[in-house]
């Protein structure tokens, strides 16, 4: 079997000879160079060594003793190191060469492409020219590695990474290994593929998967909405032409809040004595004259 057939995998080879710039390894029929930069120890002739085979930037078969996070046929979480518009994203699998996940395997909208530092669950694929590319884990693969949630997990705070995204929602795998779905109504913005998100479990399905909300709990939302209102008031010297009688469309346009959320936050601010209303306007309490 040609060494090319082992590209993207680890294989045990023997040191055939040593040169100034590295070691020539052999399977008994073919040789491959293990450059000095690709090993952290000295080797001896006839020594057996386990290496990962890949094609370098010049199209040559190469070897490294670095242990990659994934190989062809195995899966793992790897970080994104760069996103290139129109091309795809490059991933660090633990060798000197970054691996491309092409645009055809990414969402149509580049706004939800992974950014540097995001994590993707991938394997490697080798094309007919023996070049290595990344391949995202399928939903079935995620299902196989996932753990079942129970009713005890309901309302639990969770965090994890997005492994699939679409207009109707996003799918994530939590740190506990739960496979979760985030409906579009349960997120303020669409998360990136590979982005780490935090939310809470709002439903546990019979198959052990969960529904997750990225929206803050009501008390947290109330705090955030109140801050939005106060910041706007302060930007207008403590007075604004909005009150709990304002039109829902006007509130949504100005604050990005529903009228019910606006009224709850405003009611809280009034109860706390921070604001008051008068003739359709709202004022900061300390600004009343």
UniProtKB/TrEMBL annotation:
| Annotated ranges, domain Conserved virulence factor B second S1 | 75-132
Residues annotated as coiled-coil are: none
- Cite the Conserved virulence factor B third S1 domain residue spans from the record: 143-216
Q: Which InterPro entries match?
A: CvfB_fam, CvfB_S1_2nd, CvfB_S1_3rd, CvfB_S1_st, CvfB_WH, NA-bd_OB-fold, WH-like_DNA-bd_sf, WH_DNA-bd_sf
Q: Where are the transmembrane segments?
A: none
> What's the superkingdom here?
Bacteria
Ranges of residues in domain Conserved virulence factor B-like winged helix: 229-283
Q: Which residues form the Conserved virulence factor B first S1 domain?
A: 7-65
The entry assigns this protein to a family as follows: Belongs to the CvfB family.
Q: This chain belongs to which protein, by name?
A: S1 motif domain-containing protein
Q: List the source organism.
A: Mesobacillus campisalis
């Amino acid at each position: 079997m040609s060494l090319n057939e082992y590209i993207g995998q680890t294989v045990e080879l023997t040191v055939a000879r040593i040169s100034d710039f590295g070691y020539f390894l052999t399977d008994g029929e073919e040789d491959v160079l293990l450059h000095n930069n690709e090993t952290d120890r000295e080797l001896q002739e006839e020594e057996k060594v386990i290496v990962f085979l890949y094609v370098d930037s010049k199209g040559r078969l190469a070897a490294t003793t670095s242990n990659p996070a994934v190989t062809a046929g195995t899966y793992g979480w790897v970080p994104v190191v760069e996103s290139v518009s129109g091309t795809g994203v490059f991933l660090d699998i633990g060798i000197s060469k970054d691996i491309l996940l092409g645009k055809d395997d990414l969402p149509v909208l580049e706004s939800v492409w992974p950014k540097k530092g995001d994590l993707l669950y991938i394997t490697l694929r080798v094309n007919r020219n023996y070049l290595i590319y990344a391949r995202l884990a399928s939903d079935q693969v995620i299902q196989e590695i996932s753990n079942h949630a129970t009713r005890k997990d309901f309302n639990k705070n969770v965090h994890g990474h997005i492994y699939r995204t679409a207009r109707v929602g996003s799918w994530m795998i939590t740190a506990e290994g739960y496979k979760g779905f985030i409906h579009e109504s349960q997120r303020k913005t669409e998360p990136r593929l590979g982005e780490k998100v935090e939310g809470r479990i709002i439903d546990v399905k019979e198959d052990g998967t969960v529904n997750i909300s990225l929206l803050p709990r009501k008390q947290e939302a109330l705090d955030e909405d109140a801050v939005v209102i106060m910041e706007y008031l302060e930007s207008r010297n403590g007075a604004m032409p909005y009150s709990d009688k304002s039109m829902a469309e006007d509130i949504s346009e100005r604050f990005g809040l529903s009228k019910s959320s606006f009224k709850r936050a405003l009611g809280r601010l009034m109860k706390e004595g921070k604001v008051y209303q008068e003739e359709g306007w709202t004022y900061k309490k300390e600004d009343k004259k």
